[in-house]
Design a protein that fits this description.
alpha/beta, 7-stranded mixed β-sheet, 8 helices
């Protein structure tokens, strides 16, 4: 029995494949979670392309893709995800922000229409299923996997997820904007007591003041929420593409000084063993 996560893409907004950014990574949002023999994928940013190749190399034949939302930086890798072109591969796609607007499948199909993309969604060889859920619902994925959802404050909507497995818990909370001076009760309830939380830490407090309404948060708000919710470990996520490795290291150090022993910034290519992390904590 294992419970691990691997970062395949940690940036927001747009890929930044420059040498100055490679220490933390340049691909947009994609996180792989393995729970026993199950594979969960959070978001389909550009990081999902390499993940797809690795899944096929490992002989993985099914996965569940949980979309926080369908802005381009979170779905632009989907047309380049090799498993969806592979007969016999089964992909369940879950989304929680478009129930009232026709569902996520229409968006995924739309970005693969001409003149945007040459291969139509309907010709994909894999077995695809799309489930649109109301934020706040809980999904039983079987095999001891429970996934709770919560609505996030983001333009066009977004969904946060919490995975409970083997007595441990992980939350994926990206693309959300806080209200200064207020605790987001939706997030607080979702992450309460979590072993690890990935949180949208795009901006510093100074940067946020210039970008109110853009749908993103700060590492300071992440620390505030995590402490209030008795979270064991906070992972800063959805890094600003304008922040190079030097800037990211400085931001991470500042967050770690504010909450020693509990904060780390996500780095592309890093795998975390959640069972070992929880035991150590």
């Amino acid at each position: 029995m294992g419970f691990t996560l691997t970062f395949w893409g940690v940036r927001g907004t747009v890929p930044c494949p420059m040498a100055s950014h490679m220490g933390f990574g340049g691909n947009t949002s994609c996180v792989e979670v393995t729970a026993g023999d199950r594979t969960l994928i959070f978001d389909a940013g550009t990081g999902i392309r390499l993940l797809g190749r690795r899944l096929l190399d490992r002989g993985i034949a099914r996965a569940t893709l949980l979309l926080s939302h369908t802005h381009l930086d979170h779905i632009s890798g989907f047309p380049f995800f090799a498993p969806v072109y592979t007969p016999g591969f089964a992909l369940e796609i879950v989304s929680g922000h478009l129930c009232a607007a026709g569902g996520a499948e229409a968006v995924l199909e739309g970005q693969m229409r001409g003149p945007l993309f040459p291969v139509p969604y309907r010709t994909l060889a894999a077995s695809l299923s799309v489930t649109d859920v109301e934020p706040g619902s809980t999904l039983d994925l079987g095999d001891g996997l429970s996934v709770r959802t919560a609505p996030l404050n983001h333009p066009d909507g977004a969904t946060g997820y919490r995975v409970d497995y083997a007595g441990r818990s992980l939350a994926y909370v990206t693309d959300t904007e806080h209200v200064p001076g207020e605790i987001d009760r939706n997030i607080l309830g979702l992450i309460a007591g979590c072993d690890m939380v990935l949180y949208d830490s795009t901006y510093t407090e100074e940067e946020y003041r210039q970008r109110v309404g853009w749908g993103h948060s700060t590492w300071t708000e992440g620390v505030r929420l995590a402490r209030a919710a008795d979270v064991k470990r906070l992972v800063l996520f959805h890094h600003d593409p304008d922040r190079d490795d030097t800037g990211m290291a400085a931001l991470e150090a500042e967050a770690q000084a504010a909450w020693p022993g509990h904060v780390v910034a996500a780095r592309e290519g890093v795998t975390i063993d959640l069972l070992a992390e929880a035991s150590a904590g």
